[in-house]
């Protein structure tokens, strides 16, 4: 004969079930436009940024995944005084960052390697343009 001792369930203190509030981080962009709606100045700030206050940048690229439409929404802006060579370098850096993000997020080493190979090819292209 099997005897199961089923003790009376203990009452759980609801305070122990309360989770700490999730941390929130905010990123803000301010774009000052000229009379033709071309960016003159791009400023940004973030709650986790080490330096307080707004910081200026010459270019920004933001990509958002729309899971409902299964596509990417992009915002790419640069100021009219950003040098073209710096813009090209910025895009190579963005692509390289995507390689690392793809590796971290998916573990796909082949994809990351191919993206990095493209970056190396583009860097050589820029070096050849200077020569």
Mean pLDDT: 89
The largest sheet, given as strand count, sense and whether it forms a barrel, is: 3 strands, antiparallel
How large, in whole angstroms, is the Cα Rg? 25 Å
> How many strand units?
5
Structural class: alpha+beta
Describe the secondary-structure layout.
Elements lengths: L13 H4 L9 E7 L5 E8 L8 E3 L1 E8 L4 E8 L5 H23 L2 H22 L1
Write a structural description.
This protein is of the alpha+beta class and 131 residues long. It folds into two domains: 25-80, no CATH class; 83-131. The chain is 37% helix and 26% strand. It contains three helices and five strands. It has helices at 14-17, 84-106, 109-130, and strands at 27-33, 39-46, 55-57, 59-66, 71-78. β2 and β3 form a beta hairpin. The longest helix is centred in the last third of the chain and has 23 residues, at 84-106. The radius of gyration is 25 Å and the shape is extended. The relative contact order is 0.09. The mean pLDDT is 89.
Structure characteristics:
single chain; 131 residues; alpha+beta; 2 domains; 3-stranded antiparallel beta sheet; two-stranded antiparallel sheet
Task: Give a brief description.
The chain is of the alpha+beta class.
